[in-house]
Amino acid sequence: MALLDIITRFFAKDNVSSKDVARERLRLVLVHDRASVSPEFLNQLKEDLIKVIREYLEIDEEALSVDLENEEDSIALVANIPVKGFKRAG
Amino acid sequence: MKSRVIVITSGKGGVGKTTTTANIGTALAMMDKKVVMIDTDIGLRNLDVVMGLENRIVFDIVDVVNGNCKLKQALIKDKRFDGLYLLPAAQTKDKTAVSPHQMKNLTNELRKDFDYILVDCPAGIEQGFKNAVAGADDAIVVATPEISSVRDADRIIGMLEASGLNNARLIINRLRSKMVKRGDMMDINDILDILSIELLGVVPEDESIVVSTNRGEPAVMETTSRAGGAYRRISRRLIGEKVPMLSIDEENLNFVDRFRKILKLAR
Predict the structure, then answer these.
(1) Total structural domains in chain B?
(2) Does residue A35 belong to any structural domain of this protein?
(3) Better pLDDT: B93 or A39
(4) N or C: which end of chain A has fewer CB within 10 A?
(5) For testing the chain B interface, which of A23, A24, A73 should be mutated: the one with the most B CBs within 10 Å?
(6) Which of A19, A29, A34 faces B183 most closely, judged by CB atoms?
(7) CATH number (domain holding residue B121)
(8) Which domain holds residue A66?
(9) Is A12 domain-assigned?
(10) What is the DSSP letter of B78?
(11) Nearest 10 degrees: CA dihedral of B232, B200, B144, B174?
(12) Rounded-to-integer distance, Cα B36 and Cα A59, Å
């Protein structure tokens, strides 16, 4: 690597090479492409999840996130659902 | 010999499908194969200018499928190589002027006279793509080391599989070794990991492609062209020869550099 490159990299915002950024972004976008999952699909899923969970728990609907993630060659549906409180048993 | 119909495709435009078709077609003809290249990019034809045959077009693919002329009348014989022909696209029609069924009949007709039928596919995933793959036995996917191109290549590989073409092979085009070394461009393994298909070859970024396109003479005709050398090796792999993959650094050597390297070794 040329000295100039090393210096430029040192002063750059971060030290991750741009090809690693590209590779990771590509991996993630392909998870969605391959599963043919549209943002509308995920939104619908999210709304339905909220409907069901609301019956049992008080949740922070604003902070709820649902997404597909790529972990070691397998795809996982990862949902992060903050719980505000439990509903008293009737 | 059984003839092969090979579609050259990419999804994304501007990654080098037409350049690849012209160079592989010419290289195969240089190895005494009978080759016809079909431009299926109706409305945006370009294989004719890349081959330097634009002044000789009388009839085109739409004339052939509509019965306005015989297939043989529309085939343009290359002035430099005996077994090399071009079937040009129409420039004034659109992609719906030909159907997948007509394309299949056309390629089957050409099988009688040619060893290799190379189909230059238009960008996109609509009718033009469906036409181009209709009669194909094999597929070559061209991608450059960019997110957009690799993403589209992934989509295209899926669509090829859906059409029964499970044996697609990849050409990585316009790889810049300096950028790869700096970590600013995805390398061959990054792309192969993601797409998980067989690699047919790697073509380095090379200004000689611009020059050869300016002249209408495919780079494979130029002994000193690095990209031309890469396409010659790709074409030998295509006819079944065992040609080892070179590292990017080796791909980047041109004819003169190779000669120097040999001299150095001998010393």
Answers:
(1) 1
(2) yes
(3) B93
(4) C
(5) A23
(6) A19
(7) 3.40.50.300
(8) 18-86
(9) no
(10) P
(11) -20
(12) 65
Q: Which amino acid is at B137?
A: D
**Residue at A7 is within a domain:** no
Amino acid at B145: P
H-helix or E-strand spanning residue A71: strand A65-71
Indicate the residue of B180, B181, B194 with minimum beta-carbon distance to A27. Answer: B194
Query: Tell me, what's the ipTM?
Result: 0.77
Number of folded domains that form chain A = 1
Are A1 and B184 a contacting pair at CB < 8 A? Answer: no
Structure tokens at B48: 């004719």
Tell me the residues of chain B between 132 and 171 that have a Cβ less than 8 Å away from chain A: 146-147, 150-151, 154-155, 158
Question: CA B144 to CA B148: how far, in whole Å?
Answer: 9
pLDDT along chain B (267 residues), means of 10: 94 96 98 98 96 96 96 96 97 90 97 98 95 97 98 96 95 96 95 96 96 96 96 97 84 71 68
